[in-house]
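Next comes this protein.

***
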Amino acid sequence: MIGSTHALLRTKNLKKNHLQRHPVTNAKFAVQAFAEVNMTIHAGTTLALVGESGAGKSSLARCLALLERPDKGEIWFEGLELLSLERKALLPIRGQIQIIFQNPTSALNPRLSAAEIIAEPLLIQGRGTKAQQRARALELMDQVGLPPGWKSRTPLEFSGGQRQRLAIARALVLDPILLILDEALSSLDLANQEMILKLLTDLQALHGLTYLHISHDLRLVSQFAEEVAVMHQGRIVEHADVATIFAEPKHPYTQELLMAMPTLQSICQERFA
C-alpha cells in the first residue's frame, strides 16, 4: 500500500534548538530539540512517531504544522519546499496541515459555542457566508459523533472524549490533507481511546487523510499505524513498517521500548492487585 502512494511530506536534515537562560547568570544557551531529521510520510497512510518524553517529538510536530520555524533543513509538502516560501504563499498551505493537541480544553475557546468553535477558522479566512459556515460546522459535528443539537453548548459542557471530538471537527473544517495528532489520545481512558481511534480510522477513509500520530503508547501504534519512526534524543534512530518494528527491531532503543511495553497480563495485575 505504502509503495503505491506518493510522499506527501518529506523532511531533509531538519534541526531545531530552543534558547534558554541560565537561572543564575541569565546567559542564553541553546538546547537541542531535534537534529538531522529525515522523514517521509506517504499520502493516505499513518506514520507513528514514538519516543521518550523530551525526545523532540512535539517540537518537530510544531515545525511541521508551521507553528514554529526550524533552524535548518527543508520541509517538502506536495512538491513545495515550505521554508523557502513567503508568508503569503504559506497561508493556503497552513489549512492543509492541521494539528490536534493532547489537551483539547486548552485549544478551545470556552466563551464560544461548539458550532462557533468549529466554524471559527472559516470565519478567520473569510470562507463562505455565515450560513454556510454554520452548516459546515453542523455537518462536521455529525461526522465526529456529536449531536448537532449540541451546537450551542460550550466546551466545558462536554466530556474529555467529546472535547477531543470537537477539536477534531475544528481541525477538519479547512479540509486538511495532513493531520498531526500530538498525543491526542493519551489523556483519554481506554474506552474513549478505542472510540476515538475508530473515529479517526473512519475519517481517514472518508476524507483520504494522512496522519502523523505522535504517541508513547505502542499498543495504540500497533493498531493504528502502517509505519513507525522511533525518535531518541532528538534524532530518528529507526523507521520501518509496523510489522518490522515489532518483530525485528534493529536499534537498541527500539528494543528497549518494546521490552517496556506493558502486556495485557501486567495491566490486569496492576489494576486488580
